[in-house]
Amino acid sequence: MGIIKQLLYFSVHPNQLRAIIQWKLWHDPVHTRNPEKESATLRQCFHYLQLTSRSFSSVIQELHPELLVPVALFYLILRGLDTIEDDMTIPLEKKEPLLRNFHNIIEQEGWTCNENAPTEKDRDLLVHFDCVITELNLIKPAYKAIIKDITEQMGNGMADSANNQELNINGIATIKEYEKYCHYVAGLVGDGLTRLFVEAKLANPALLKRPELAESMGQFLQKTNIIRDIREDFEDKRRWYPKEIWSKHVDNFDELFDPKNLQKALNCSSEMVLNSLGNVEECLFYMAGIKEQSVFNFVAIPQAMAIATLEIVFQNPAIFTKNVKITKGDACSLMMESSQNLRTVCDIFKRYARRIAKKNTPKDPNFLQISAACGKIEQFIESLYPSQDPKALALIHKGEISAADEKKKAEDKEAKSDVFFLLIAVLGTLLVISALMIGAAYLAGARFDIALSELQKGKFFPGHQPGGAESQNIVQNHDHGEL
Amino acid sequence: MAAKKQQLGNVLVIGGCGFLGHHIVDLLLSRTISKVSVIDLFTTRNRRPDSDGVGYFNADITDISALLPIFQKVKPDIVIHTASPTAVGTNNALYYKVNVEGTRCVVEVCEKANVKALVYTSSASIISDNNAMDLINADERWPVMPAKSQTEYYSQTKAEAEQLALAANRKNKLLTCSIRPAGIFGEGDIQNIPNFLNVHYTNRTNFQLGDNTNLFDFTYVQNVAYAHLLAAYALLQTSTLSTPPLDHEKVDGEAFFITNCEPVYFWDFARGVWQAAGRYDGTEKVWVIGRDVGLGLGGVMEWAYWFMGKTPKLTRKQVKYSCMTRYYDCTKAHRRLGYTPIVKLRDGIQKTVDWFEEEKRKEGEKKGQ
């Protein structure tokens, strides 16, 4: 956006500008990384982190010092793996061993890779990958083992997909395959991060016993991105929507982009949204298991962005023609709100669930299921933070307190004390002002003693000119007595 | 209960020709191994074909002398008591007579006839004042609304009857429990779906009372019937135990909320019904009438129609219901009875609407002849 356009935009959307300014001014990171104490290679790693990730780099850099470096390296390694997988110019016979072996490669001091096409956007990272490897060999062995394990699983998953002719020609067929894909690219990340958090004692170890929760965290983010990026992926000749879903609405995937099929296309994307909404409960449950604030922010911010993104793409015809994103102002206020506690995050989810329900339309065959999915989210949040208390209701029923009485009593009490404080305030103000006026008059030389004695004589109104001869007389008389 | 059919022995369904009752009879026949008998005031409607072997008995449940011989003949192991006048349009004396006195008679006869288990059909409305109060994710810890705050006499009598049924648990050998269904709908329903369909047939679907952020539980009748079967089975199992079960597992003497576990926004349910009937209209042209305005309108309509001697098209009660949050948490039924709905909300609505459309078509044919 040009500056003029931005100015125009913000002049009619002051709230957006306000949110951005607030985030910039008041956002107080829980932890701040200190580049001065870092080695040259580590600084280089953070340089690549900023280059390769727009959304994650800032939240990673605010992580607890214990996890700052492991998580940053974890991100860079997976980004490296992804860059190899993405590059269609690398032949399969070269690509497959790289993917399957990547977990060993990341231990080979000095390894770099120049194979990527010059157009690959994160090519630089792999060209200088030795800095990541150097740093990885310095972190605690427990963290390194987790990173290696996830890298191995993901590399093998990617190699399997690259080898799958059926998948490469016809694309993802079933919802099961779709979720399997999301598992390899995102669910595994959730698993790895959770193990890191627990290892660092910053999350509840019970999370490891419920691996489906971490899985959902990854799935929800990935699915949301897939739904949003339908147009961009289509232009890059990629398709992640499973045939099981889109074939219910159109015969060929391309038809989704034909404006005359708009309603069908919307129905198709709503069904994808419905599928994603199914992960929300587990995401909220997962976040309840995080103990440390910076880790909480790290997991909660992307989730808040995802539910907001899901809402903006829902029933939105624009997703078939362009890239739809939440506004920067909304992103800032979401970051503010989600980097607090589970309750504020639940408020965000409830708000967006209701917005989705509001955009939901009976034109859509999944109308009722979507309504129920939103209801389910609300119900789950209600189970975490109940708004009704059965014990209080029982007391009200027993007549020990009647709801109306209780309220009235409280209001009366409040009203009484309100009046009291109001009086005190008024009197106090009067007193202060009087004191000031009297004090000022005194300093200016007013003769209160004379005024008082004149008043005692019953002379309430001075019948003479101020400062006149008669006044002088009175002062004289007062001071020297009526001799 | 899916794979192997459960043995329930002799089962007597009181009110087995009613809306819920006949669905219970259907499910008993298809899902269990049991000898089914039915008591109802009239046994001509909703009757199974003779080949199914269901024994039908005409009797008034407020008359012990009529019930006892039937019980002695049938020798039921399980009694499922669903008989009740419909929630609207009946006079208070009848509610009291059937719900409270009828239930008292049923309990007494069960005890005399050595029945093992009694499942009583209560109502989820008994914890609401049915006027201004929201129920947000309510569960069995929520107190029953005392009579003085209850605005629906029907609900008051259901609460009293539930109390009678539960108090009888383990007094002698009888085990009892209570099922509290919320917003039952289904084939043969005369309260929910016909009203919604009527709005669709008369093209009044473009009005909405309230902002539609209120979640509401509606429950497909087969799921409610299924919960009764699960409860009966659980009580029967308990009756074979030599020691009473632990507090957190017990079913006898307990009440259970039963819903479809899919609360939806009130007007979304209505639109779901209309969609099932073929109306795929969007919501762009819908007029939203706020709750307060609606209450005012309802009041005016009530007076005006009362003056003209007609039934108003909009009442304050309708406004209150459609703006009320009312949904429940069925975790207790899930844990102790193993209850999970067998029919999803959308499918339940479709089945119901198809049934009503078919009935309408038949009606049309009759008139055409």
From TrEMBL, chain A:
Pfam families: SQS_PSY. InterPro entries: Isoprenoid_synthase_dom_sf, Squ/phyt_synthse, Squal_synth-like, Squalene/phytoene_synthase_CS, Trans_IPPS_euk-type, Trans_IPPS_HH. This is Squalene synthase. It comes from Cudoniella acicularis. GO terms for cellular component: endoplasmic reticulum membrane. It comes from the Eukaryota. Its EC number is 2.5.1.21. The chain crosses the membrane at residues 419-444. Keywords: Lipid biosynthesis, Lipid metabolism, Membrane, Steroid biosynthesis, Steroid metabolism, Sterol biosynthesis, Sterol metabolism, Transferase, Transmembrane, Transmembrane helix. The keyword Flavoprotein does not apply. PANTHER family: FARNESYL-DIPHOSPHATE FARNESYLTRANSFERASE, SQUALENE SYNTHASE. Pathway: Terpene metabolism; lanosterol biosynthesis; lanosterol from farnesyl diphosphate: step 1/3. One of its GO terms (molecular function) is D-glucose transmembrane transporter activity. It catalyses: 2 (2E,6E)-farnesyl diphosphate + NADH + H(+) = squalene + 2 diphosphate + NAD(+); 2 (2E,6E)-farnesyl diphosphate + NADPH + H(+) = squalene + 2 diphosphate + NADP(+). It is found in: Membrane. Gene3D superfamilies: Farnesyl Diphosphate Synthase (1.10.600.10). Catalyzes the condensation of 2 farnesyl pyrophosphate (FPP) moieties to form squalene. Residues 463-483 are annotated as: Disordered. Belongs to the phytoene/squalene synthase family. GO terms for biological process: ergosterol biosynthetic process; farnesyl diphosphate metabolic process. Its cofactor is Mg(2+).
From TrEMBL, chain B:
GO terms for cellular component: endoplasmic reticulum membrane. Its main location: endoplasmic reticulum. GO terms for biological process: ergosterol biosynthetic process. The keyword Lipid biosynthesis applies. It holds the Pfam family 3Beta_HSD. GO terms for molecular function: 3-beta-hydroxysteroid dehydrogenase [NAD(P)+]/C4-decarboxylase activity. It is found in: Endoplasmic reticulum membrane. The keyword Transit peptide does not apply. Belongs to the 3-beta-HSD family. Heterotetramer of ERG25, ERG26, ERG27 and ERG28. ERG28 acts as a scaffold to tether ERG27 and other 4,4-demethylation-related enzymes, forming a demethylation enzyme complex, in the endoplasmic reticulum. This is Sterol-4-alpha-carboxylate 3-dehydrogenase ERG26, decarboxylating.
